[in-house]
Each structure stands twice: as structure tokens, then as C-alpha cells.
Write a structure and sequence with these properties.
Helix content: 10-25%
Number of helices: 8
Oligomer: single chain
Radius of gyration: 18 Å
Order of helices and strands: EHEHEHEHEHEHEEEEEEHEEH
Number of strands: 14
Shape: globular
Largest sheet: 9 strands, mixed
Length: 251
């Protein structure tokens, strides 16, 4: 089955207002920048995003955030985005912060049909006990607080129940992909991309290099095409456009 879309714009055209999105990337590494840009042009709003972080003020998901198009974020790290902090503290944005490993496992579980799992991460903290502000009230205080989670003893140790994550769509980026949706990621750019892809009911992958089926050796494939519904081949310019979150040079 040929899963290629003619363009990023075509691939995201049916993403509706209020849709949930699992988005790959870590910082600005491995983010599906072309798909995010196409979604910005497309105009969907009220989006509910699951991603390790929300980009920066000028790149990645930060572009959608700055335009007021994201209503809720589930993520692990938000420290590089001042607009994110402003929207959260003012009550414009709902935020669920999740330990990074727990977020990864919640996405993986969603992709594998596992509804929930127990983990020791967060036991004895507000993460398990509840009360973390998900949304602040405009005039101060808490409008929406996190609920308490179920805990259980295993071998005299307490674990907290975490629910799996599935989303309407997933947006990911890969170094290579074929027309069947099989994907190969490049080193650290793999990060959350396979996990996000698993969690999407409709997964859209932008690939820097598109090859014919059979070119990718089975042992080299990081994510099988069964998890991918649409593939977009990037232009040379799009493939080369890789931003650096913090550029550091020697003195």
C-alpha cells in the first residue's frame, strides 16, 4: 500500500479543531517541523498536544502555542518556552506534567493496546496524591487540579497506576522511510518519535529520504509501517532545516 501524501499540507488537511496530537521530538531535535508548519497554515485550533516539550518561542510546537492554537499540553519539560509559562500561569493553557519515563511508557502502552500500568515513579508526591494545578484560574487560584491516582502494593512496595495515552493523530519525523510507512530514525533524533507514532490513530511521518519498499533492510527498520498511515517526503531545504536549541561554541 502506497501511503505517501503529495505534501505536508495535504497530510494534515483533515486535522480538526480540538484534535489530540502525539508529537515526536526532544527539544528541537527530531521535531516534525514541516508538518507543524503545515498545521499552522491549515488553521486547526483548540489542539490537545502530547509531547515531551512544546518547542521554543520561535520553533516547533511553540509556533502553534504562540498563535493560541493549543488548549492543553501533556509533557515533561517546558523550560525553554516563556510563552508557555505565561499562558499556563494566566490560565489560558491546561498543562499536565508527567515524568519523562512515565510519558514514554504511557505512549508505548497506548500503541500496544495496554490500557494502564503500575510504576513507582511519583509515589508519595502530588503526582500520585493529586492537587497539581492543571489549569490556573484567571484571577488566581486553581481552576482544574490533577486527580489522585490509584496505588497498589507489590512485594511491600507502593506503585501508582498510570493510564496509557492514545491520540487522534501523531506527527513524527524520520531520516528514511518507504512508501509502506516503514521508518528509520537518525541517532538521537529517534527520541520520542517511535513512541508518539505508536500512540496515534492516524500517524503522519515526514521523512528526509523516501525510498521504495524493499530498500530498507528489515533489521534496520526502527518502526514498522503498521503504525504509520501517511508519509510525506521533505524537500531538500526542509530536510536541511534543523534548528539548534542552544548553540554552544568553545571560547
Amino acid at each position: 500500500m502506497d501511503k505517501t501524501a503529495a505534501s505536508a499540507e495535504q497530510a494534515v488537511a483533515d486535522i480538526r479543531d480540538g484534535a489530540s496530537l502525539a508529537v515526536g521530538g526532544f527539544g528541537l531535535c527530531g521535531i516534525p517541523a514541516a508538518l507543524i508548519s503545515a498545521l499552522y497554515v491549515q488553521g486547526a485550533t483548540g489542539l490537545r498536544v502530547v509531547s515531551n516539550n512544546c518547542g521554543t518561542d520561535e520553533h516547533g510546537l511553540g509556533v502553534l502555542l504562540g498563535a493560541g492554537r493549543i488548549a492543553r499540553v501533556t509533557g515533561s519539560y517546558v523550560g525553554e518556552n516563556k510563552e508557555f509559562a505565561r499562558q499556563y500561569l494566566s490560565g489560558e493553557l491546561e498543562v499536565e506534567l508527567v515524568p519523562q519515563g512515565t510519558l514514554a511508557e504511557r505512549l508505548r502502552a497506548g500503541g500496544h493496546g495496554i490500557p494502564a500500568f503500575y510504576t513507582p515513579a511519583g509515589v508519595g508526591t502530588p503526582l500520585a496524591d493529586g492537587g497539581i494545578p492543571w489549569r490556573h484560574a484567571a484571577g488566581g487560584g486553581i481552576a482544574v487540579a490533577s486527580p489522585a491516582k490509584e496505588t497498589r502494593l507489590f512485594d511491600d512496595r507502593t506503585f501508582v497506576l498510570e493510564e496509557a495515552i492514545t491520540c487522534d493523530y501523531a506527527l513524527v519525523r524520520a531520516a528514511r522511510g518507504d512508501r509502506h510507512g516503514n521508518l528509520v530514525f537518525d541517532k538521537s533524533a529517534r527520541n520520542f518519535n517511535p513512541l508518539a507514532a505508536m500512540a496515534g490513530r492516524i500517524t503522519i511521518a515526514e521523512v528526509e529520504e523516501l525510498v521504495e519498499p524493499g530498500v530498507l533492510a528489515p533489521d534496520d527498520i526502527h518502526l514498522p509501517g503498521v503504525f504509520v498511515q501517511r508519509v510525506v517526503e521533505l524537500t531538500a531545504r526542509q530536510a536541511a532545516d534543523k534548528q539548534i536549541e542552544k548553540r554552544t561554541v568553545r571560547a
